[in-house]
Design a protein that fits this description.
The protein contains eleven helices and two strands. The protein is an all-alpha fold and about 280 residues long. The chain has a two-stranded antiparallel ribbon. It is globular.
């Protein structure tokens, strides 16, 4: 069952008919931003005041992280729309206004890349070291992404995957985790039985596991920057794999077909490995 608006959630739970014209996706994105800010503040304070890896130069963690989140969020939204527009050139040419200003169609990597660039510029202008700050935001990025993906799942915004192959489903796995028809989805699209792969749910689960690992291991890394490299590697590999069961435009490279997200994921994965090795070598 999809719940495009909070009204749907409340009425399902209480049996009432209360009208709350608030999009479920938007509400969960807002929660994701709030939670990410809280966890980032904790890490900024730890890195600045406990092990002294992060020099804040008289900036207060609370205001610094809030301002950073504002910059990254706005830039991320712009980047997400930009990359989505690039991925559908025909629609962009025929209806540029509709593509750019539509409420749907967001590329997570577009948001991540442009958001990171804007965040790095912001941090550098504050005369704060970038690499320790990347470590500080890494766990929060994973957690926020997971919550945001739940927004996609509950609203049924079209991020689902291909038709599910029920014949290969493991017997121990619940049917709802393998295939869903997203009734009452925000797009009002009918999905025939048995349904499609609920890929936003898969991404959310992996993101929460990634957060748990990063949060548990964040004090174990002795080299600044390696925690962020681990985040980048885990998140990019997860996205690369889930794309095989999603419906996206694919590009051909020497007989290999990959989506835009898979190409970016491979580049980020390689960058994370190279960065991890370089950072480890520079610490010797």
């Amino acid at each position: 069952m999809a719940y495009p608006y909070l009204t749907d959630v409340v009425n399902e739970l209480t049996g009432t008919s209360i009208h709350l014209p608030i999009a479920t996706f938007g509400a969960l994105v807002a929660i994701a931003i709030f939670v990410a800010i809280r966890f980032t503040r904790v890490e900024v304070e730890r890195l600045a005041f406990t092990n002294k890896r992060l020099q804040l130069h008289n900036h207060q963690p609370k205001s610094l992280v809030t301002d950073l989140a504002f910059v990254v969020t706005l830039s991320g939204i712009a980047g997400a729309k930009l990359f989505d527009a690039i991925e559908q050139p025909r629609q962009l040419l025929t209806d540029p206004i509709g593509v750019i200003f539509s409420t749907g169609g967001f590329s997570i990597y577009g948001g991540l890349i442009l958001g990171c660039i804007a965040g790095i510029i912001f941090v550098k202008r504050k005369a704060i070291a970038v690499v320790p700050m990347l470590d500080a935001v890494a766990p929060a990025l994973a957690l926020g992404y997971g919550i945001g993906r739940l927004g996609c799942q509950f609203s049924g915004d079209g991020d689902w995957g291909k038709p599910a192959a029920m014949e290969i489903k493991p017997n121990w796995l619940p049917d709802w985790f393998w295939a869903q028809t997203y009734p009452n989805n925000v797009l009002q699209v009918g999905i025939p039985v048995p349904g499609v792969y609920p890929t936003p749910l898969y991404e959310a689960v992996v993101a929460f596991i990634t957060f748990a690992l990063l949060w548990a291991l964040r004090k174990k890394f002795s080299v600044t920057g390696q925690l962020f490299c681990c985040y980048l590697l885990l998140s990019s590999l997860a996205r690369f794999l889930v794309e095989f069961i999603r419906i996206n435009y694919q590009y051909e490279f020497f007989g290999i077909f990959l989506s835009q997200a898979q190409i970016i994921a491979l580049v980020l994965a390689m960058m994370s490995v190279v960065g991890f090795v370089i950072l480890k070598g520079s610490n010797k």
